[in-house]
């Protein structure tokens, strides 16, 4: 049973120009990636492409596969193995979203019902496993053990991050170090791997691969920090998830970690009630936003995001100067400017 999912994305960020430029630059390659994704989602079990297509069709920035494509082209690659690797990266990302929504008991993603809300947790977990297996098949087709090692390791690190987040969930004693371990694992690891395999398949130079890995890792951290900021500060529907979702789910993100460190006993009691016990009342989200503003949890989260963004940009300094490098530099700005 063939299911054709719309893969063009639907984000409307406040300043999408940088991402638009990268998308246009990689448009021909991305069209091939999108077709490959649709082809490899197919199965004789109808529920698999139906459920996978539901999430893929929800749109999104497609940032991770774009990073793979742009990294390969930046390094002068003219072959086609980066197409399969970009699709593998997107399958890994999609599989983790399916699993995350089950773990988080989420009902909505980008304004649509999550797959687990429609088909149940069991089907979502199993289809996530199917997509992971598809990603490994694509890795093998690259005929590079190093590529397989990088993406397989990233998949394991993502799972470690998810387990670490589960352990620290609703724990207001979570440290900044604990928090950073989670986002380095859950988010930055795949950003880094997406860039690294693009450079590796191009076989450009020994310097390009670690430089692009560092670019991706720091970009991923900056991206997640801004996401955590926006959960409390976004003012319109351009944000990819519901405003205040992290708060309602009791997630301990950096703004809260910083506010806890600087807060009063009364504020500590508020966070423990709302995030540890999840005993939330009308007006609690607004109170949380007020505390985060007073304790500069939001402002300092953005400062840290800018620091990681600067490090990401600096990692590209010695790479070839071409349109792809310029687009990757501009994407750094896109990631941070989502906050404004």
Written overview of the protein:
Helix content is 71%, strand content 1%. By secondary structure, the chain is mainly α. It has one domain (17-337): Farnesyl Diphosphate Synthase (Orthogonal Bundle). The radius of gyration is 20 Å and the shape is globular. The N and C termini lie far apart (44 Å).
Number of contiguous helices: 16
Instruction: Give me the CATH fold name.
Output: Farnesyl Diphosphate Synthase
Mean pLDDT: 89
Specify the CATH class. Mainly Alpha
In whole angstroms, how far apart are the ends?
44 Å
Number of strands: 2
User: By CATH's scheme, which homologous superfamily applies?
Assistant: Farnesyl Diphosphate Synthase
- Beta fraction of the residues? under 5%
Overall morphology: globular
Query: What structural category characterises the helix and strand content?
Result: mainly alpha
Q: How large is the radius of gyration? A: 20 Å
């Amino acid at each position: 049973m063939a299911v054709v999912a719309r893969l063009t994305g639907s984000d409307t960020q406040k300043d999408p120009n940088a991402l638009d430029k990268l998308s246009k630059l990689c448009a021909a390659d991305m069209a091939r990636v999108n077709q490959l994704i649709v082809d490899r989602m197919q199965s004789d079990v109808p529920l698999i492409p139906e459920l996978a297509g539901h999430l893929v069709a929800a749109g999104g920035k497609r940032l991770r596969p774009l990073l793979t494509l742009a990294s390969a082209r930046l390094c002068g690659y003219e072959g086609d193995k980066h197409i399969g690797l970009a699709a593998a990266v997107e399958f890994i990302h999609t599989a983790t979203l399916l699993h995350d929504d089950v773990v988080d008991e989420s009902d909505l993603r980008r304004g649509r019902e999550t797959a687990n809300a429609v088909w149940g947790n069991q089907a979502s977990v199993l289809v996530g496993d199917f997509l992971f297996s598809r990603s490994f098949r694509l890795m093998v087709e690259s005929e590079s053990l190093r590529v397989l090692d990088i993406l397989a390791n990233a998949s394991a690190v993502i799972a470690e991050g998810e387990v670490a987040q589960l352990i620290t969930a609703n724990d207001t004693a979570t440290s900044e170090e604990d928090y950073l371990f989670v986002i380095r694992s859950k988010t930055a690891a795949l950003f880094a791997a997406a860039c690294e395999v693009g450079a590796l398949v191009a076989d450009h130079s020994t310097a390009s691969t670690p430089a692009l890995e560092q670019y991706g890792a720091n970009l991923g951290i900056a991206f997640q920090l801004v996401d955590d900021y926006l959960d409390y500060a976004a003012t319109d529907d351009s944000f990819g998830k519901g405003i205040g979702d992290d708060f309602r789910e009791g997630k301990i993100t950096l703004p809260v970690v910083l506010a806890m460190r600087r807060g009063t006993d009364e504020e500590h009691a508020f966070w423990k009630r709302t995030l540890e016990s999840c005993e939330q009342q009308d007006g609690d989200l607004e109170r949380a936003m007020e505390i985060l503003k007073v304790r500069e949890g939001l402002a300092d989260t953005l400062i840290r995001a800018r620091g990681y963004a600067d490090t990401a940009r600096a990692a590209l300094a010695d790479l070839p100067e071409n349109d792809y490098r310029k687009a990757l530099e501009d994407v750094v700005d896109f990631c941070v400017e989502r906050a404004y």
